[in-house]
């Protein structure tokens, strides 16, 4: 990692040799995936044992994370509950990546020596020993860079170029592809995973565009796997039933650990700004994220991060988003997403197939 002379702009905290650092991020899959580069830097640059405090449903991702040594689960509770949990980490430092009042007070009660949080939460002023300035919503930095910046007092002086973080948060599946699904990732064709829904975490590409993409991929060269939750599958039942035979419905059929295995075994993955697109990128799979050009959910902040990750977006916000209409963190389809053409996505996938199979599977 290239070093720089920017040490004057923040206070470096002295940690003991081989420190134990608790990284607290108790939100969603994509947020956790984009916190893993910070974990990788803490291990590589500070020699830390990384204990990750997350939600129970994210455990399979944390178990697959090369940079996470131990896992604690938080499903809510009082500051006293949090203190009891944090004591189990035996941490020399805690980084509150996702601020939560109970966890901030709990870390104080647990007497963690170094407690790092954003200065933009009032409860971090009495509970944190290091309060980093600056907000996220208007920042030009990527989410992974913002996470590293929050913990910079624990790290040697390092630059934050995004390329330097692409391989710091790798995932490795811990379970095999389920036997019933294994034939669908056979090497006879290019296996593309698509994840049409976002569970409300981002803007969605319309189902008509997904159908156009699937129809444009020749069935003798491509196999398409549709993933999502059981509820998402039920909401797309008519659309799924109308797909051609080379598209296979896996919605509701995969546990999270199994989804990681399938994403790692697949040749490529396309999704909008939702957790699985970040998981695929961290697994090293060819990944294409589809985003609106609207802050704070634009690709500059939330693009998938990995050695083979890419993104597409519309050239400009739609009229409603430009006027401040549907912009924000909510899901759904807007004209920004409609403006991403299926042909552009097909062309990217075709280029992947040409790369993966020496041109044998490229489309016209």
Defining traits:
16 helices; 364 residues; alpha/beta; 6-stranded parallel beta sheet; 12 strands
Write a concise synopsis of the structure shown:
With 364 residues, the protein is an alpha/beta fold. The chain has 16 helices and twelve strands.
Q: Quote the distance from N terminus to C terminus.
A: 42 Å
Helix content: 25-40%
User: How do the strands of the widest beta sheet line up side by side?
Assistant: 3-2-1-4-5-6
- Return the string of H and E elements: EHHEHEHEHEHEHEHEHHEHEHEHEHHH
Q: Which regions are unreliable across 5 or more consecutive residues at pLDDT < 50?
A: 1-9
Rg computed from alpha carbons, rounded to a whole number of angstroms: 21 Å
- Percentage of residues in strands: 15-25%
How many individual helices?
Answer: 16
In this structure, how is the largest beta sheet organized?
6 strands, parallel
The total strand number stands at 12
Structural class: alpha/beta
Mean pLDDT across every amino acid position: 91
Structural shape: globular
């Amino acid at each position: 990692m290239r070093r720089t002379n920017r040490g004057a702009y923040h206070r470096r905290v002295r940690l003991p040799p081989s420190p134990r650092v608790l990284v607290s991020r108790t939100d969603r899959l994509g947020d956790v995936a984009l916190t893993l580069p910070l974990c990788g830097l803490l291990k590589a640059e500070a020699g830390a044992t990384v204990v990750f405090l997350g939600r129970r449903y994210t455990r399979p991702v944390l178990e697959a994370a090369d940079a996470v040594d131990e896992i604690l689960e938080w499903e809510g509770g009082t500051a006293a509950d949090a203190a009891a949990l944090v004591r189990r980490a035996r941490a020399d430092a805690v980084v509150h990546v996702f601020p939560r009042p109970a966890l901030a007070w709990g870390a104080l009660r647990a007497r963690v020596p170094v407690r790092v949080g954003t200065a933009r939460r009032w409860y971090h002023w009495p509970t944190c020993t290091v309060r980093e300035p600056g907000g996220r919503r208007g920042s030009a930095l990527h989410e992974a860079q913002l996470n590293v910046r929050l913990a910079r007092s624990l790290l040697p002086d390092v630059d934050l170029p995004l390329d330097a973080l692409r391989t710091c948060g790798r995932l490795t599946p811990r379970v095999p592809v389920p036997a019933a699904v294994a034939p669908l990732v056979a090497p006879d064709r290019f296996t593309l995973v698509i994840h049409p829904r976002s569970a409300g975490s981002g803007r969605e590409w319309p189902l008509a565009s997904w159908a156009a993409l699937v129809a444009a991929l020749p069935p003798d060269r491509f196999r398409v796997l549709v993933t999502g939750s059981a509820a998402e599958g039920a909401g797309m039942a008519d659309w799924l039933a109308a797909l051609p035979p080379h598209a296979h419905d896996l919605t509701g059929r995969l546990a999270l650990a199994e989804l990681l295995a399938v994403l790692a075994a697949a040749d490529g993955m396309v999704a909008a700004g939702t957790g699985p697109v970040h998981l695929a990128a961290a697994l090293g799979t060819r990944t294409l994220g589809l985003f609106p050009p609207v802050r704070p959910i634009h690709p500059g902040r939330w693009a998938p991060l990995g050695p083979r990750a890419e993104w597409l977006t519309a050239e400009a916000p739609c009229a409603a988003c430009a006027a401040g209409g549907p912009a924000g963190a909510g899901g759904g389809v807007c004209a920004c997403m409609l403006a991403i053409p299926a042909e552009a996505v097909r062309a990217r996938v075709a280029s992947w197939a040409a790369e993966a199979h020496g041109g044998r599977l490229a489309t016209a």
